[in-house]
Structure formats: structure tokens, C-alpha cells
Design brief:
Blueprint lengths: L1 H8 L8 H8 L24 E2 L2 E2 L2 H14 L2 H11 L1 H9 L4 H43 L7 H28 L2 H5 L3
Helix pairs in contact: 1-2, 3-7, 4-7, 6-7
Length: about 190
């Protein structure tokens, strides 16, 4: 809503930013765009701060991460990786590698991607979270930043769960194919 408020209330580059600040700080009627007043005629402060159309609560952060996880299709990435090496997996089976060992290889690859992505994503996400919180919340209202550890834990749990589901399909597909079909797969 920050950007939306800026566009709604500031029509030129040299306009007063106070209107945007008032829109973000005090309740407004969304249809008339006029400030809501209490019975004494004073502006009513917002109960929560709205930034980029997401409430700053932790549950919204988790939902945004789930949407990003779905958007970048972790399941398809793992399935494509297995499909690209189907001949190699067939050769492994032909020389005597069991399905259990093959499954462990696929799971290990998927979890390697997950761990590296989780560490990098968490570090970058916390850095960006602290930076934006400092610029948008702490600067204006003085609230102290605290790491969103419960939200990060929920996100990592969702990512690990999605990887567990993602490896199931490719492993089942390899298990159902004969060794000859696996080696001759295109």
C-alpha cells in the first residue's frame, strides 16, 4: 500500500509527501479517500501498518513464501532433473544398484538443493527483512526489529515437506520402468 498510497496522493514529483504519510498512518474510507474521524473530529490511527498490500504479520510472510515456492515449481524442477538423467539411472540399475540406493541418490540431490537454497534464502531474506523493516517501520515509529524465527521455521518446514512430495513421483516412475526401458528412454 505504500506505493499505492504514494500514487494516490502524490501526483507530481514535487508534491507534499505528508498526504501519503497520513494515508498510511490514519484510517481512510477506501471509496471516498477521506480520512476517518472519531466522534471528537480527530483522525483515527490505523490499528496495523500496511506495506505493499501485505499486512506486516508473520502469517502473511509465510503465505508469500508458499506462493513463491509454488510459482517456481520445485516439484517440476526435481522431476526434470530425474528425467534428464534417466539413462544414467537405468545404467546404475543395470550394474546392480538397488532401487533403495537409487532413491537415496535422488533424495540426496533434492535435499542438497533444498539445504543450499534454504541457507542462502534465509540469510538473504533476513537481511532484506531487517533492511526494509528498518527503512519502513523503525525509522518512522521506532519499533525494534526482531528476527522472524517462527515464520522462518514454518517456511523451512513447508519447503522440506514439498521436497519430500517432489521426490515421490520421479522415484515411483523409475521403479515402475524396466531396466531396458530406463536405459532406452529419450
Amino acid at each position: 500500500m505504500t506505493l499505492l498510497a504514494t500514487f494516490k496522493h502524490i501526483s507530481s514529483k514535487n508534491a507534499d509527501y505528508g498526504a501519503a504519510e497520513a494515508y498510511l498512518t490514519f484510517e481512510h474510507d477506501e471509496f471516498t479517500m477521506k480520512a476517518t474521524l472519531d466522534e471528537n473530529g480527530r483522525l483515527i490511527p490505523r490499528e496495523d501498518y500496511r506495506i505493499s498490500s501485505l499486512n506486516c504479520g508473520g502469517e502473511d510472510f509465510a503465505v508469500a513464501c508458499m506462493r513463491a515456492n509454488l510459482r517456481y515449481e520445485k516439484i517440476n524442477s526435481i522431476s526434470m532433473s530425474v528425467s534428464a538423467r534417466l539413462k544414467q539411472y537405468g545404467a546404475f540399475r543395470a550394474i546392480g544398484v538397488s532401487m533403495g540406493q537409487l532413491s537415496k541418490m535422488i533424495v540426496a540431490e533434492a535435499f542438497t538443493y533444498t539445504i543450499i537454497g534454504g541457507v542462502v534464502g534465509t540469510v538473504l531474506g533476513l537481511f532484506c527483512n531487517k533492511l526494509l523493516f528498518g527503512m519502513l517501520i523503525s525509522y518512522r515509529w521506532g519499533d525494534a526489529w526482531t528476527p522472524p524465527l517462527p515464520e522462518v521455521a514454518v517456511i523451512l518446514l513447508i519447503v522440506v515437506s514439498s521436497v519430500i512430495l517432489a521426490v515421490h513421483g520421479p522415484i515411483k516412475r523409475i521403479r515402475n520402468m524396466s531396466i531396458v526401458d530406463t536405459i532406452s528412454a529419450q
